[in-house]
Automatic annotation (TrEMBL):
GO terms for molecular function: electron transfer activity; FMN binding; oxidoreductase activity, acting on NAD(P)H as acceptor; oxidoreductase activity, acting on NAD(P)H, quinone or similar compound as acceptor. Transmembrane segments: none annotated. InterPro entries: Flavodoxin_fold, Flavoprotein-like_sf, FMN-dep_NADH:Q_OxRdtase_AzoR1, NADH:quinone_OxRdtase_FMN_depd. Residues 1-195 form the Flavodoxin-like fold domain. Pfam families: Flavodoxin_2. The lineage of its organism: Bacteria, Pseudomonadati, Pseudomonadota, Betaproteobacteria, Burkholderiales. It is an enzyme of class 1 (oxidoreductase). It comes from Pseudoduganella buxea. Binds 1 FMN per subunit. This is FMN dependent NADH:quinone oxidoreductase. Also exhibits azoreductase activity. Catalyzes the reductive cleavage of the azo bond in aromatic azo compounds to the corresponding amines. Homodimer.
């Protein structure tokens, strides 16, 4: 089993979403010969999708400058990791009601027409199929199931767009609401992981 772990917190240490992603991966890999690839998007940020990147992506491969080829290769490496994974585990904290810029950059990198999705007669078809996904969602407030949870629809929509439909979410909320709320959130998240994995 190949496991790809994506840590998308802006913090390389002390992140609750990373703690939960680590825990999920440890449970998945326990007693197996799993290969685990970890990508820490804070320690090694992926460049944002800007005009230069778009020009590189839309330039035919045999016509790219060395700089354009180098930029496209960065995205190619992330796509290859996602394609090779049997399981993808994502640590996804909520920042300002959405996903982090780090995770958005990863999403932008792996979404490529003709590679991870295509357009058919009825609309887009995801090509990253046959994979299990776990997403550890952490928030400072309480948003699950409410109108302020704009993060979850984004995650579901994007993952489905590239063919990742088998998704389980683990929630840990209330981290900005005091020590008791934090302890409760961690305990409940640990219980969710034990039940899912």
């Amino acid at each position: 089993m190949n496991i790809l772990q994506i840590n998308s917190s802006a913090r390389s240490s002390g992140s609750e979403s990373t703690r939960l992603a680590d825990q999920i991966v440890a449970r998945l890999a326990a007693g197996t010969e799993a290969t685990v690839v970890r990508r820490d998007l804070a320690a090694a940020p992926h460049p944002v999708l800007d005009e230069a990147a778009l020009q590189a992506l839309f330039t035919p491969a045999d016509q790219r400058t060395p700089q354009q080829a180098e930029r496209v290769a960065l995205d190619d490496a992330l796509i290859a990791q996602a394609q090779a994974a049997d399981v993808i585990v994502i640590g996804a904290p909520m920042y300002n009601f959405g996903i982090t810029v780090q995770l958005k950059s990863w999403f932008d990198a792996i979404a490529r027409a003709g590679v991870t999705f295509k357009y058919g007669p009825t609309g887009p078809v995801g090509l990253l199929t046959g994979k299990k996904v776990f997403v550890a969602v952490t928030r400072g407030g309480l948003h699950k199931g409410g109108p302020s949870d704009t993060q979850l629809p984004h995650l579901r929509t994007f993952l489905s767009f590239v063919g990742l439909d088998d998704v389980q979410f683990v929630f840990s909320e209330g981290h900005g609401m005091g020590p008791d709320a934090v302890a409760r959130a961690r305990s409940e998240a640990d219980e969710q992981i034990a039940a899912l994995v």
